[in-house]
Amino acid sequence: MPIRPLATLFAMKRGKLLPLPPRLARLYGSLRMPRALTHPHVFSNFVSTLDGVVSLNVKGHASGGDISGWNAQDRMVMGLLRAIADVVIIGSGTLGADREHVWTAEAIFPELADDYRRLRETLGKDDAPLNVVVSGSGELDLRLPVFASGKVPALIVTTSAGAQRLRKHAVPDSLAIRAIAGESATIPAQAILDEVLRVSSGKMILVEGGPRLLGDFYAQRLIDEQFLTLAPQIAGREANDRRLSLVMGRAFAPGESPWGSLVDLRRGSSHLFLRYSFAASRTDAS
Length: 286
Fold this sequence. Notes:
By secondary structure, the protein is an alpha/beta fold. It has helices at 22-28, 64-68, 72-84, 92-97, 105-108, 113-122, 145-148, 160-166, 189-199, 211-219, 279-285; strands at residues 7-11, 16-17, 32-33, 41-49, 53-55, 87-91, 130-134, 154-159, 175-180, 204-209, 225-231, 244-245, 261-268, 271-277.
């Protein structure tokens, strides 16, 4: 079944208009991103139910596909954002939910692989985005495709103890391991970003989760923009439910919550594709 174009309901005309190939331009519309970046532009992409659930957190049903209903337009947008990214950051929980995946545009929507590749070439991005996995424990299988396939350059950001654990195994040539000094098993978002920038000179940093990792980035005011697909599903929660919301592990006090500004709104059937800017919140905190 052919994928239908998104309908643009609202779009602020700011930033640089990206040269999308004709098919992507027809499906998504125009896409603008910041001009001449002096600091990394950190943006996130998630899909959520109407009642705020981003993962059912059930074995075999923990991915965003269960939330979006495997919506083709959502996957198209995921691929588009990965195509313009220099780096994609995920946590070990996100990796665990899709162990055979690599975080590239082509992997999430193979039907548009040629269009995504053409866009990256036009933007001067010759290689796949750096795939960054954050794991405090370092309990990761280095034989997984994201580390061992050679399809993507990969980086693990971990603790000193985690790095020791990982280096007991054969480390693939395409994988770098960076340890954050300190006794805590939790790695600060700013430390993650600092290590990423030591490995990559790219300025477009995409955070795909999970919710605890995203919460840390929001807590340190490091998110510039949030792309959010709103799926017409009610997931529900029981008392003490393990189902995850967009941000987990962080609760903002009254008056301290990050507030975004709506900069783009598109519709695909009953799904809404939202884009919020948090740049002002980040600037105020810096």
